[in-house]
Amino acid sequence: MQADLAGTVDQLIDLLQAKSGAAMPGTDLLLSNAYDELMSNVVLAQHIGQGVVDGVECEHLAFRSTDTDWQIWIESGARPIPRKYVITSKTVTGAPQYTLRIKDWKTDAVADADTFVFKPPSGVTKVDLDSGVMAEFDEIPPGTPSGAKK
């Protein structure tokens, strides 16, 4: 899927979620108010300790909310950027998890126009954002929502 859009990253995420209906786990890390979004429903937070993600020393933090549990590993030192993010859904049978590993988060680089040019492999078909195709896509396997775990 490809679309030309103007505006902020927050507006882009809102539009993609509205048009696709997809949950898009991990986009909360890209929002301008990431801390507020992440902490909005937290009922318990804990510093687990230090850990290593892809050879980088990190602080491991765990959070619990009503519907999800999530963990994040933040690089220790002068570059406190996320290195790993695990989201566990407690309202879907089997408690599916999403794991994101961030290996090269560039906070000081300026992207040129070619950075965001999509170069599709041969044999693919371009899909318009308004086509409704994303509504048919669901990453969560069929199952019965069981409600929050106790």
Q: Which features would summarize this protein structure in a list?
A:
150 residues, five-stranded antiparallel β-sheet, 2 helices, globular, disordered C terminus
Question: How does this model look, in words?
Answer:
The protein has 150 residues and is of the alpha+beta class. The protein has two domains: 70 residues, no CATH class; 64 residues. Helices cover 12% and strands 29% of the residues. It contains two helices and five strands; from the N terminus they run H-H-E-E-E-E-E. A five-stranded antiparallel β-sheet has the order 1-2-3-4-5, with no helix packed on it. A hairpin with a 2-residue loop joins strand 1 and strand 2. The longest helix is centred in the N-terminal third of the chain and has 12 residues. The chain is globular and about 45 Å long. The termini are far apart. 5% of the residues are buried. The C terminus is likely disordered.
Beta-strand content estimate: 25-35%
Largest sheet: 5 strands, antiparallel
CA(first)-CA(last) distance: 39 Å
Domain count: 2
What Rg, in angstroms, do the CA atoms define?
A: 18 Å
Helix and strand string, N-terminal first? HHEEEEE
Shape: globular
Mean pLDDT: 83
Give the strand tally: 5
Strand order of the largest sheet: 1-2-3-4-5
Structural class of the helix and strand makeup?
Answer: alpha+beta
| Parts with pLDDT < 50 across at least 5 consecutive residues | 146-150
